[in-house]
Amino acid sequence: MRIPLSWLREYTQLPADATAEDLMADLVKVGLEEEDVHTFELTGPIVVGKVLEKTPEEHSNGKTINWCRVQVVPDGQTQTLEGRGIDPSGVQGVVCGAHNFEVGDKVVVTLPGAELPGGFNISVRKTYGHTSAGMIASEAELGLGAGHDGIIVLSEWGLDPEIGTDVLDLLHLDDEAAEINVTPDRGYVLSMRGVAREYSHATGTDFTDPAAGIEVPTPNDQGWPVRIEDEAPIHDTPGASRFVARRVNGIDASAATPTWMSARLRLAGIRPLSLPVDISNYVMLELGQPLHFYDADKLSGDIVVRRAHKGETLETLDGKTRKLHVEDLLITDDSGPIGMAGVMGGLATEVTDTTTSILIESANFDAVSVSRTQRRHRLPSEASKRNTRGVDWHIADEAAQRAAELLVELAGGTIDEGVTDVGEQAPTTTVRLRADYPSAVVGYDYTEEQIRQVLTDLGAYVSQQRDSTDGTPIFVVTPPSWRTDLQIPEDLVEEVARIVGYSHIPATLPVPPPGRGFTVHQRMRRQVANALAGAGLVETLSYPFVSEAQNRAFGSADEASAADQAMIKLANPISSEFGWLRTTILPGLLDTLRRNVARGFRDIALYESGRVFLPGAQTGSKTIPPLGQRPDDDVLAQIEAGIPDQPHRLAAVFTGHDSAPGPGHTPREYDWQDPIGIALDIADVVGVDLRIRQGTHHGFHPGRVAELVVEGQLVGYAGEVLPKLLEEWELPARTSALELDLDAIIAAAPDVVEAQPVASYPATFQDVALVVDDHVVAAEVQQTLRAAAGELLEDIGLFDVYAGAGIEEGKKSLAFNLRFRAADRTLTADEASEARLAAIAAAETEHGAVLR
């Protein structure tokens, strides 16, 4: 919200010498954030000049310029400026490229020493064979908008000032505006009325309500017929609760907007367009009530406020034809829709320069309904910004009267005797506030008088009772009509703290309760994250919003299950493409990988840990409990039953090489072994026994994917991503990945991981090479060897897989290294060999292995 200081001074005691910075410093005290300072960025001398001579000259470049003599000081006075090209008589020679003026016209002249927006300095300069001591200015050059093709002729603006008059003062360009940030719950501050009230709270000065002096006639049956027929209210609230209509006849819609009004609108961030539009915007900024003007002669029949019918369309003021939704609240007449309530009017009833009769709409619309409509049609506006935050129900008639009076004052005409005012106010909210509650919440000892004074200054009606149990005073508060955000005691506590002053709130550091720390799950997740970072992986975060196809690619192991996979669809996604909650982390991680590859990075190892969303039999709840009271156990149980399961998952992706090349060093390419190795590292950190077995997953390369198993439970997959998916993601070939259920792994971890004692006796090493069918999984052979070798086997590892010369076709050789050790003695070679032979025998029985 931008606040022109001259405007605010009409309703407050803002000092004449106060700057925008001073104003913002005061408003910060009541919780309004300062944003910026806005000025017209002009410095003088800029004066009114009269054209005495105008001589057209055509030049060799094909351009015709005008050599002008312009009087810039009143008759009988002399020029105060001195220097080269300055005529003491006050008649300046100026070169002008515009042609929309004549001798005798009064224009705006920027003299040497002036500075225009953008740091453009005016000086005496030689151009087109003349010494030009100044410039005749246009609207664009003064920063007042694009303007028309030519310079400002003051008579066209309805002005006839004295020659030499300071233009900054004449056009009110010496004003400035303070910009503040207004939070959504304080929509009443989006008006000069609201800001002035907040300034009085901040400074303790008097406030003049701009609506207080407006005399509103009594509604009668001579006004324009209006009916509110909302057959599909949202959340049981009518779309329109009040509709005031006033008519002004015989106006001149082409009349110029006065300079004081256009200057204030520009400083407030609104571009002047035409007098009727400017008046509607001016009243909206002044009182906070959005208005809409209709060309009354283009209306047909009664105005009806209703929801859209299926298939209806509306051509809005921006010239676009919009397909309406059945929830859209409309303003209609006998011809059909003529506007979207609280958002934008229709083109068919637009006010133009030829309009002579205007019907003023000043209405109160449901904030939720307006918000959904403006989001649905992507039509944010200053009017919808206020309507979506709640507008004072009682200000509609004053705003309509104010607009009608301004139309009569500035555009001529008369106000029609008819006054339409239909609708019904919602029940008044009453809030009970114990006198000791603000002190208990804030930590500062507020007196009863302070609390009462604050609530009264807010405009609330306050009565007092006493608690029947302990006699504590209770304030019974009816908030003012412009404070729709005050609903519960905590809202009132916030107002007390805000207006008495945040500086009174004591600064106390919270003391953490003793004996608490990370839970087991939190501690283990952190240990896993540290281990992955130590292994050279970079942690990333991605949005939990994915497409349906991405969920189906990795959410289930086989295509049949993926087709039937349940997932949660978002009601209001930030993008229609990504309208689902993730059931797997890999799509977001692969998308992060794609962005990095596209930016030239080639050797990448990333991981992400986060929640996925797995819906159960019920999603969401049928009803939303009201605010301000605790739902009963059945309602809470229903809400909890609709919350999806949200386990922690961990995923990692690898592409490129494991290190940078260097002298004497050739980096290794990432392959399927890396995600499996990371999975084993995670299991080692947590303290579980992770088994690797051959698997299948329709998102991974067939034959190059492993299932990760803990205590017989499948907890994840690791391997190379399916080439088809890599092409779709535009990722390098042989990119590998893993995803596992971190919660399941942590749940299988022992409460205490015991450290193994340092071995006191030497180890004995033996190798074994077994020839097996090429479809036999090496991990299964290794598991058989481990189990059969007995307790003397300390470790086993696969170090070679060979197929080729010397090996029968359809066979392969698996070579394992076995490490034997006894805890109480030095192991003999015979003991190790005996254990080795037992392991070989088991492999022969289980897998048909033959010793090589």
From TrEMBL:
EC number: 6.1.1.20
Gene3D superfamilies cross-referenced by the UniProt entry: 3.30.56.10, Bira Bifunctional Protein, Domain 2 (3.30.930.10), Ferrodoxin-fold anticodon-binding domain (3.30.70.380), Nucleic acid-binding proteins (2.40.50.140), Phenylalanyl-trna Synthetase, Chain B, domain 3 (3.50.40.10)
CDD domains associated with the record: PheRS_beta_core, tRNA_bind_bactPheRS
Record-annotated FDX-ACB domain positions: 759-852
Primary location group: cytoplasm
Positions with a binding annotation for Mg(2+): D485, D491, E494, E495
Subcellular location: Cytoplasm
Residue ranges of domain TRNA-binding in the record: 40-168
Every B5 domain range: 426-507
GO molecular function annotation: phenylalanine-tRNA ligase activity
Cofactor: Mg(2+)
Subunit-level organization: Tetramer of two alpha and two beta subunits.
Family: Belongs to the phenylalanyl-tRNA synthetase beta subunit family. Type 1 subfamily.
UniProt protein name: Phenylalanine--tRNA ligase beta subunit
Species the sequence originates in: Enteractinococcus fodinae
Gene: pheT
